[in-house]
């Protein structure tokens, strides 16, 4: 194995500074002085021959090179932590759950509440925007999202992801037909497996006059749609709480077709020393996340 040219301690300092965008906060979190953090970053930049941070006013901002490095370093430290964690007694390990951020913020709170009510006091949730189709096996339970997941034999499908335009009730009266979309912003989740362009192409709609409002996380989409900023194309599974409460509605544009794909799957560990502990977690996730043909949650269809 090739030895790293950069000390792990320097990368740890960079990861903390990069995630907080503050040398002072990073120093406090690592029990170091601010000058020690600043010096470590300067030496790291010299070693890499590139600038990792820019000073913007009184704050810090990662450069493009800094952002790219941070993504890999954070993932690497997560892997190290997981590796160390496997050395502990499995009975003392927290129940570990992996999920896409959209589902983690929308549907998993009910799961967590039920687990805490059941006296399960040690729960670890990891929500990564970019899917990892190998690492999910490191978790007791994992919700795996993406087209490649359909080709993995040991995953259980959680029903279809149906994508159709959704908006706030106040906006719906303005959307009588597809031409009215030109008067609204189309809210984009840049990490989604299904895009607005997929839907527009399927329904024969030209994009020349479209207004775009782009986000890189599903969690950012929801407040934007609730505020009436525009129309979103998101899996109805992710928006289930707002659709069921009436805070959001399907646009139901005449003559249009929704996109339905199998994208969301469930992994449950097969480890004999963990299976009894995680069965309840898996059942709760099935209850909260399983969908039926039209994309509605199965738990709310009856």
Describe the fold and architecture.
This protein is an alpha/beta fold and 302 residues long. Helix content is 37%, strand content 19%. It contains 10 helices and 13 strands. The protein has helices at residues 8-20, 23-30, 34-48, 64-85, 101-106, 108-117, 196-202, 218-226, 240-245, 275-289, and strands at residues 53-56, 59-62, 95-98, 123-126, 141-145, 156-157, 161-167, 185-189, 211-215, 230-235, 249-250, 259-261, 264-268. Strands 7, 8, 9, 10, 11 and 12 form a 6-stranded mixed β-sheet that branches. Strands 4-3-5-13-6 form a 5-stranded mixed β-sheet, covered by helices on one side. Helix 7 (196-202) links the parallel strand 8 (185-189) and strand 9. Helix 1 (8-20) packs across helix 2, helix 1 (8-20) crosses helix 4 (64-85) and helix 6 (108-117) packs across helix 10 (275-289). The longest helix has 22 residues, at 64-85. The termini are far apart. The relative contact order is 0.13.
Distance between the termini: 56 Å
**In terms of quaternary structure, what is this?**
single chain
Average pLDDT, to the nearest integer?
87
Could you say which structural class the secondary elements and strand pairing correspond to?
alpha/beta
What is the general shape? globular
How much helicity do the residues have?
25-40%
* Strand segment tally: 13
Order of helices and strands: HHHEEHEHHEEEEEHEHEHEEEH
Strand content is 15-25%
Task: Please state the CA-atom Rg, rounded to the nearest Å.
Answer: 22 Å
By DSSP (H or I, 4+ residues per run), the number of helices equals 10
Largest sheet: 6 strands, mixed
* Poorly predicted regions: none
């Amino acid at each position: 194995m090739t030895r790293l040219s950069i000390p792990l301690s320097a990368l740890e300092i960079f990861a903390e500074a990069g995630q907080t965008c503050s040398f002072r906060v990073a120093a406090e979190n690592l029990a170091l002085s601010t000058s020690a953090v600043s010096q470590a970053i300067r030496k790291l930049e010299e070693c890499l021959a590139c600038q990792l941070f820019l000073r913007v006013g009184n704050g810090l901002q990662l450069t493009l090179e800094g952002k790219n490095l941070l993504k890999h370093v954070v993932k690497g430290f997560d892997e190290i932590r997981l590796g160390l964690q496997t050395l502990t007694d499995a009975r003392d390990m927290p129940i570990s759950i992996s999920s896409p951020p959209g589902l983690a913020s929308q549907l998993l709170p009910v799961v967590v509440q039920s687990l805490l009510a059941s006296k399960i006091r040690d729960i670890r949730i990891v929500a990564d925007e970019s899917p990892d189709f190998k690492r999910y096996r490191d978790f007791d339970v994992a919700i795996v999202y993406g087209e490649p997941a359909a080709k993995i034999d040991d995953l259980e499908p959680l029903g279809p992801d149906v994508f159709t335009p959704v908006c706030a009730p106040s906006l719906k009266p303005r959307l009588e037909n597809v031409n009215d979309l030109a008067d609204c912003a189309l809210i984009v989740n840049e990490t989604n497996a299904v895009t607005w362009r997929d839907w527009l192409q399927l329904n024969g709609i030209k994009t020349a006059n479209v207004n775009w409002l782009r986000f890189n996380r599903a969690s950012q989409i929801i407040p934007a749609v609730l505020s009436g900023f525009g129309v979103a194309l998101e899996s109805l599974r992710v928006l289930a709480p707002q659709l069921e409460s009436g805070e959001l509605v399907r646009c139901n544009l005449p003559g249009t077709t929704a996109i339905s794909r199998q994208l969301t799957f469930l992994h449950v560990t097969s480890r004999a020393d963990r299976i009894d502990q995680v069965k309840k977690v898996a059942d709760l996730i099935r209850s909260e996340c399983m969908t039926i043909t039209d994309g509605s949650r199965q738990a709310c269809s009856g």
